[in-house]
Design goal:
By secondary structure, the chain is α+β, with helices and mostly antiparallel strands. 50% of the residues lie in helices and 19% in strands. Bound molecules: (R)-mevalonate.
């Protein structure tokens, strides 16, 4: 029987870059060509096809979030991100979650919302009834726009009407088309559908269609993740373990009640989600918009996660949960075109968009756990010092092969500044030249 692959890669961070690349290539069975995409992938010619006025490409570091156990399966998370500590935090938190069996996840079908804005409607109530009664006709028209989506099991799922009585320009009727986009993010499909049905909606309502566009508040397309971690996983001393877990639950309550904290808390969650969206060629602005709108769904902007102390089977435990809209695809758009996005999907090994969304939810929860654990225990700066020191050294112009040496001295001096890095580098260069 083939050996079960584990993402529990102890000491991965300490390996040289070439060994890490080799390990991930072997893990994901990447071809030589696929491995080569890890250091670029996109060509100027391809970039020129993707956007207007292209003049080049912009690279980001590409790393791997390790230790993820999700629904009993091991995953390596491809993450494109410029911020130090983000990828390390995912690995640390995912290791903690393994003590409770990892993450359990779920998701809704990939139902997106397309909106049509109808103005100058003579009677909102009558118009709303007429639209709802036309559900079968509208459904047929929508499905006729997307035969391959329908063949794959997706397509029209229903109509909703939202009369808005009081807007700055007076009353209007909003019609929602609900469409299952399966493994596509779905923006193109939705926008085609709303444009196709708008004339029929005009004649049904007597109104005038203005905007016809998808909604990024994709609250019918959600993913969630949970974990239950014994408090003993947080420290060898049980009292200290309990106190760290309680600190995390207390921190979550702060973000639930205070939008100023919730914005930072949720930014930390997106630190985990966006890098996977970027690495897999997904639209991270759409994901951000949906997440933050959803966080304010009850009228106050709140935390997207919930952390609380519970009685676990083996004693006190910390239970965590996240649920958010996640409109991501594994076909179409940049996901299909960008060679590195294809490699990122292969590293993940996901076979559906829903599975991708669930992994992203789990990584968002892990990222939040990593941040809250550090904040509630030693503070965030402690663990960040070494990584910030490397950035300070790079910012001071220290060559890449000398960065670790200069960074080590910045940390030893507890003075992590680019100006100090420049002084240290100048002194070391002087010494090296004398030898
Ligand atoms: C930094 O990028 C993210 C944090 O501020 C998140 C948080 O405070 O929860 C550390």
């Amino acid at each position: 029987m083939p050996e079960k692959k584990t993402s529990r890669l102890s000491g991965f961070y300490a390996k040289p870059l070439t060994e890490r690349i080799a390990a991930v290539s072997e893990w994901a069975e990447l071809s030589v060509v696929e491995t080569a995409t890890l250091s670029g992938g996109l060509t100027p010619a391809l970039a020129n096809q993707m956007v207007e006025n292209a003049i080049g490409m912009f690279a980001l570091p590409f790393g791997i979030g390790v230790n993820l156990l999700i629904n009993g399966r091991d995953y390596l998370a491809p993450m494109a991100v410029e911020e130090p500590s983000v990828i390390a935090a995912v690995g640390n938190a995912a290791r903690l979650a393994r003590a409770g069996g990892g993450f359990q996840t779920g998701s809704t079908p990939s139902v997106m919302i397309g909106q049509v804005q109808l103005l100058d409607v003579p009677d909102l109530a009558v118009a709303a009834q007429a639209v709802l009664a036309a559900d079968p006709v509208l459904g047929k028209l929508v499905d006729s726009q997307m035969p391959s989506m329908v063949a794959r099991g997706g397509g029209f799922r229903g109509i909703e009407v939202r009369p808005l009585h009081d807007t700055p320009v007076g009353p209007m009727l909003i019609v929602h088309l609900l469409i299952d986009c399966m493994d596509a993010m779905g923006a193109n499909v939705i926008n085609t559908a709303v444009e196709a049905v708008a004339p029929l909606l005009e004649s049904l309502t007597g109104g005038r269609a203005n905007l016809r566009i998808l909604s990024n508040l994709t609250d019918r397309r959600r993913a969630w993740a949970e974990c239950t971690i014994p408090v003993s996983a947080f420290a060898t001393d049980p009292v200290e373990g309990f106190s760290v877990a309680k600190g995390i639950a207390d921190a979550n309550a702060f973000a639930w009640a205070d939008p100023y904290r919730a914005a930072t808390h949720n930014k930390g969650i997106m630190n985990g989600i966006d890098p996977i969206a970027i690495a897999t060629g997904n639209d991270w602005r759409a994901i951000e918009a949906g997440a933050h709108a959803y966080a304010a769904r009850d009228g106050q902007y709140r935390s997207l996660t919930d952390w609380r102390l519970v009685d676990g089977s083996g004693g006190p435990a910390l239970f965590g949960r996240i649920e958010l809209p996640l409109a991501v695809g594994i076909v179409g758009g940049a996901t299909r075109v960008h060679p590195t996005a294809q490699t990122a999907l292969k590293i993940l090994g996901v076979t559906t968009a829903r599975e991708l969304a669930e992994v992203m939810a789990a990584v968002g929860l892990a990222q939040n756990l990593g941040a809250l654990r550090a904040l509630a225990a030693e503070g965030i700066q402690h663990g960040h010092m070494a990584l910030h020191a490397r950035q300070a050294a790079l910012a001071a112009g220290v060559p890449a092969d000398q960065v670790d040496r200069v960074a080590a001295q910045l940390v030893a001096e507890e003075n992590v500044k680019a100006s100090r890095a420049a002084e240290i580098w100048a002194a070391q260069r002087g010494e090296d030249n004398e030898q």
